[in-house]
């Protein structure tokens, strides 16, 4: 490990050494000239010119051999011309400028060495194979053939495609993008590359490793990377018109006057330093800025393409959503205790490696619940976990048998919203359910809007997830099109199709996204949470778990590209004027070289503007960040009241005459008065005025203020019904209006919280804590 920084320093020194040595040599020649010497400085400047000419000429010859034509040919001709007419000082100035451009461009491309290493490293190298005598042997993967019986341990990657011999729980997100764990029963097919998230199981191979799914993903990524066309520098696109014009003007000046010196003078002032200097400086400035925002872009060509992108394709899981399940809601049987159900489930799940278990334990600890150590814990793959907590036998997992009416409603509601349910029961029956979801990132919708403002015209979500879940996420974030149940090969085909019509940007995080990322003009990997394989084939990597940084990167890239084009255009325009002056004999080579220096300084100063500006996002003050953190933290308590409100509304709807109905209604109304309304009032008085600056005006929060009024009105409406129930019973004629108020308040409050989290709390760019 200690050797890596030293190696990096040596690489940096080699990149900047030619520029440093040539500049020092040119300055030494200037010092000798000022000392009164005449021959020595000429020799030094000639040597500087020759040193710069040799590699530049060799690079130009190689480009021409490959039928590539760039502006560097003008610099080579100018260097040759200054040597022929013995204008060595002009040649030395051009040499320094050419070397500066090469150094800046090399710096911009220093991170261009990514490969498929992580993708290949993740691929399994061996497998556990059953022997004829009932034992297990570990064999190299290439020795596995169709028909072999294998054993896949907990947490292992399935080595080859095959059929499972018992019920298993799998994480298939790396292949399909499906965020939820899936259960496969005996005899079902599974693909290589998926991860065993349960107990060990038997697998009968149906294909060898070379023919299996994961190997195909690796091949797709390799092929897509190999076929990606090389990037043409921004400067070279001007060469098609500028180089022929320069050579024609120099030739005409020489032909009409018979003075070769005039042709050299034209070439000297035509040396494309505004392109060789200003363009890389603007691009490097853009690279530096996006890196500070948490986006590492591979090279200047990728940044330029990012600034030209018009179509964006996005994966869902881990890109638009958090990529990990969270406990969205705990629903209990009538008369049950929500915290107790969650505590029991999390206590049993503490010893399970299952990702759903992690979500339950995380939720319980976030609520401050005391978790007890379970005993007699057993896990049935695909069915769940059971154990004793405080002497009670608690089961957590799938729903067995015919569910009661309340549980049936919970299951139907979860299916309609694309969520999954974990059921909790004890010896006496079903206790409740914990509803899990892969939530949409709070900043996703705002980021999509900003990407449209930045110039992206078409936004498409491609995912391996189910159509219902995919459509719901697409509606929330506001994309133009959604393609569900999309395999890695289908993703590549879609990217190719879109890339044929416009510069295409692809964003993803899993191994299944790697081929599509490599195929797109610009592939962006969610490197903070996604597989390193996708990061290795991508052109840019988000190193922080925040999708809004992608919008920052696009805006900065467009701004840097615009500054680069502006600098190049202005610089070349001034150069054309100087070329005409040189052609008519008004500008000798040395004067032309120093005039070109002046033009260079002008365009470089303009290019440095790329170090700032271009972002639409308004910065948030530390005081406002504190307010955002405070009120975002209070949302968990408001959601708990919301869950109680929904349970109470269901109770009123099913048993309005039950003795527990009015007490539950009074308790939830008390919490609305004591917890929710003070939270909304504090936001109105403190948070919303503080957001006027970052959002642009006071009007930006006016609709949210109107929602506060509606929330207060509905709470008062529920209180009015309670005030008319002195005997503790609900009248049948009041139930419909009471339910309308309760379900209406539930809908308004949920929408209000979601809007605040998307539009306001996502402004806090400190980190990804709320993802």
Automatic annotation (TrEMBL):
GO (cellular component) term, any one: plasma membrane
Every Hemerythrin-like domain range: 629-762
Localisation: Cell membrane
Source taxon at top rank: Bacteria
Signal sequence annotation: none
A single GO molecular function term of this UniProt record: ATPase-coupled monoatomic cation transmembrane transporter activity
Keyword Thylakoid (UniProt): no
Membrane topology listed for this record: Multi-pass membrane protein
Domain P-type ATPase A: 123-222
Keywords from the named record: ATP-binding, Cell membrane, Membrane, Metal-binding, Nucleotide-binding, Translocase, Transmembrane, Transmembrane helix
Transmembrane segments: 16-36, 42-61, 238-257, 263-288, 563-584
NCBIfam families: ATPase-IB_hvy, ATPase_P-type
Family affiliation: Belongs to the cation transport ATPase (P-type) (TC 3.A.3) family. Type IB subfamily.
Protein name: ATPase, P-type (Transporting), HAD superfamily, subfamily IC/heavy metal translocating P-type ATPase
Lineage: Bacteria, Bacillati, Actinomycetota, Actinomycetes, Micromonosporales
């Amino acid at each position: 490990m200690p050797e890596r920084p030293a190696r990096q320093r040596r690489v940096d020194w080699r990149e900047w050494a030619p520029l440093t040595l040539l500049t020092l040599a040119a300055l030494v020649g200037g010092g000798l000239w000022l000392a009164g010497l005449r021959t020595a400085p000429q020799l030094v400047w000639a040597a500087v010119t020759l040193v710069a000419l040799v590699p530049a000429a060799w690079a130009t010859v190689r480009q021409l051999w490959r039928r590539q034509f760039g502006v560097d040919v003008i610099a080579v001709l100018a260097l040759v011309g200054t040597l022929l007419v013995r204008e060595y000082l002009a040649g030395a100035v051009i040499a320094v400028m050419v070397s500066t451009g090469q150094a800046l461009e090399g710096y911009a491309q220093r991170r261009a060495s990514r490969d498929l290493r992580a993708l290949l490293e993740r691929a399994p190298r061996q497998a556990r194979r059953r022997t004829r005598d009932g034992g297990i042997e570990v064999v190299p993967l290439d020795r596995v053939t169709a028909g072999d019986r294998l054993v896949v341990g907990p947490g292992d990657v399935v080595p080859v495609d095959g059929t499972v011999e018992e019920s298993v729980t799998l994480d298939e997100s790396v292949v399909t993008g499906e965020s939820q764990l899936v259960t496969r029963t005996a005899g079902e097919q599974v693909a290589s590359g998926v991860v065993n998230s349960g107990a060990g199981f038997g697998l009968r191979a149906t294909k060898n490793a070379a023919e299996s799914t994961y190997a195909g993903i690796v091949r797709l990524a390799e092929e897509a990377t190999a076929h990606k066309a090389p990037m043409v520098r921004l400067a070279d696109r001007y060469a098609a018109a500028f180089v022929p014009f320069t050579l024609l003007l120099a030739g005409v000046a020489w032909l009409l006057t018979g003075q070769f010196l005039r042709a050299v003078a034209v070439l000297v002032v035509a040396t494309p330093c505004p392109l060789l200097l200003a363009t890389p400086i603007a691009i490097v400035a853009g690279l530096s800025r996006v890196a500070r925002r948490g986006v590492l872009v591979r090279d200047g060509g990728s940044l330029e393409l990012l600034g030209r992108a018009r179509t964006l394709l996005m994966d869902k899981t881990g890109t638009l959503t958090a990529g990990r399940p969270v406990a969205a809601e705990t629903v209990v049987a009538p008369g049950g205790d929500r915290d107790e159900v969650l505590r029991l489930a999390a206590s049993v799940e503490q010893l399970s490696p299952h990702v759903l278990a992690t979500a339950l334990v995380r939720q319980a600890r976030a609520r401050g619940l005391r978790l007890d150590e379970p005993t007699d814990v057993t896990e049935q793959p695909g069915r769940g976990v059971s154990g004793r907590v405080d002497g009670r036998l608690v089961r957590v997992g799938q729903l067995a048998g015919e569910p009661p009416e309340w549980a049936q409603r919970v299951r139907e509601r979860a299916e309609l919203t694309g969520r999954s349910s974990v059921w909790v029961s004890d010896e006496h029956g079903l206790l409740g359910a914990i509803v899990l979801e892969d939530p949409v990132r709070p900043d996703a919708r705002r980021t999509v809007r900003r990407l449209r403002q930045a110039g992206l015209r078409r936004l498409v979500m491609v995912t391996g997830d189910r159509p219902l879940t995919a459509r719901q996420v697409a509606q929330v974030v506001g994309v133009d099109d959604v393609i569900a149940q999309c395999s890695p090969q289908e993703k590549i085909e879609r990217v190719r199709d879109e890339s044929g019509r416009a510069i295409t940007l692809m964003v993803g995080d899993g191994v299944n996204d790697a081929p599509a990322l490599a195929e797109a003009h610009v592939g962006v990997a969610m490197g903070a949470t996604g597989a390193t394989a996708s990061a290795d084939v991508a052109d840019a990597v988000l190193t922080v778990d925040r999708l809004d940084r992608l919008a920052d990167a696009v805006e900065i890239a467009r701004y840097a590209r615009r500054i680069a084009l502006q600098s190049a255009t202005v610089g070349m325009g001034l150069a054309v004027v100087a070329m005409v002056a040189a052609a008519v004999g008004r500008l000798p080579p040395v004067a032309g070289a120093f005039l070109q220096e002046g033009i260079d300084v002008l365009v470089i100063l303009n290019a440095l503007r790329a170090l700032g500006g271009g972002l639409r996002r308004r910065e948030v003050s530390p005081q406002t960040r504190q307010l955002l953190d405070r009120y975002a933290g209070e949302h968990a308590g408001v959601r708990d009241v919301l869950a109680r409100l929904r349970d109470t509304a269901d109770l009123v709807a099913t048993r309005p005459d039950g003795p527990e109905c009015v007490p539950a209604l009074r308790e939830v109304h008390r919490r609305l008065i004591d917890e929710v309304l003070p939270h909304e009032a504090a936001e109105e008085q403190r948070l919303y005025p503080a957001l006027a600056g970052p959002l642009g005006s006071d009007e930006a929060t006016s609709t949210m203020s109107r929602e506060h009024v509606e929330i207060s009105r509905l709470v008062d409406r529920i209180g009015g019904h309670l005030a008319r129930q002195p005997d503790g019973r609900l009248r049948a004629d009041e139930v419909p209006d009471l339910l309308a108020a309760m379900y209406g308040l539930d809908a308004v409050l949920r929408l209000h919280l979601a809007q605040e989290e998307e539009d306001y709390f996502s402004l806090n760019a400190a980190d990804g804590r709320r993802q």
